[in-house]
Amino acid sequence: MERPAPDRTLDTSGKYCPVPIIETAKAVKAMGPGEVLLVIATDPGIETDMPAWCKSTRHEYLGTDRDGRVFRSWVRTRHPA
Amino acid sequence: MTTRKAKALGLISGGLDSMLSLKIVRDVLGCEVRAVTFYTGFCITETQRRAGRTRADGTVKPNEALQAGAELETEVELVDISDQGYLDVIANPKFGYGANANPCIDCRIDMFQRAKSLLEEWGGDFVFTGEVLGQRPKSQRRHTMALIEKNAGLQGRLLRPLSAQLLPPTLAEKEGLIDRSKLLKISGRGRREQIALAQEMGIANFPQPAGGCCYLTDESFARKFFDVLDHKPERKIAREEIVLLATGRHFRISDKVKLVVGRTEGENFQLDRFAEGRYRLEAAGVNGPIALVEGEPSWEDMVTASRIVARYGKGKDLPQVTVSWRGGGADGEDLVPVEPFRDDESFAQLRI
After folding, report:
1. What is the value of ipTM here, to two decimals?
2. Per residue in B230-250, is it b (16+ CB within 10 Å) or e — as a string?
3. A69-81 confidence digits (pLDDT tens)
4. CA distance B342 to chain A (A)
5. Which member of A3, A8, A17, A27 is catalytic?
6. Which H or E element spans position B96?
């Protein structure tokens, strides 16, 4: 499935649970509503952590792709309630 | 009874007790809740992921605080406290260690002091936790809980909803901000009441107790932790050293020299990342682990380390294995032939 073009890319390669999510949370705070963040990670836990974090924060989880050791997760920031 | 909505800062580990506390404070007491979880760098989940260890079904262990946030549909903020200030507390605890390298009282005081700062910055009324009176042998005794509260500067502003009716009322209860009669009186190590409550409150997914989630309570980790502190002129430990302590097999070659040998592909990958400033050892021509030597090794120390590295590789039964030495401030590589140790007992006394 084709992923949307990201408005911002965050590379967390080499960092482990929960640091990629801490950095994701910081990145999203600096973005506008409806923008897409691409998070690159090498911790396979991103596949379970990212959907859980999105559910709790009500950002839209767009999926995670794997290419060898590298994971790419897409998140669309929520619109204000 | 005041009509103002109380603001409560919850410390959420992701375990069932903290999930129940959040539900009670948010849904039963009707407070505005801000949920945080502290990242200390001693998380077992993180360490297992770093080492490439998975569960029986091949999946990685999820972060419990994030799972709890998803289950409760509440954002759980991850706050990184693994700074030097926290590490200094761990290396020099005022109230001492538990059974291993776990200074639970000092650690909790530090966490509650940080929670107090977050609470004040946010303009909140009180902090709450999932602590249960008598559940843990040391840190959740009545006396210890009061001591932690006092030393953290949170007297009267720390609510334990699950045991609140067994503890003195907090300021929020006294002032009528929250209703004490809606709080609980659970104590002890059992989980029957909590599981029944989870069903009643509609919490379907929660982690099973796994004997703690902190690496400092691990006996093997504690040996390595104290070995580092005992071989330093001052009791100080760095974040990078903590990561290395949870990676590989550790050997004390001499007072000034230590060897770390990777056990898995994940650990070898991790050790490679920390090779700068250390000697990097690896068997040449045969598969084997990556190893790091720390300190000021003599030639003999390096040969001993190399014989151990060769022992854990595919060439362990060969008469001789060539080991590559890199780093230590020199460019290029030395190729040194050594005889692998023939059995583990020959160097068992060096194992930390």
Report:
1. 0.89
2. eeeeeeebeeebbbbbbbbbb
3. 899 999 999 987 5
4. 35
5. A17
6. none
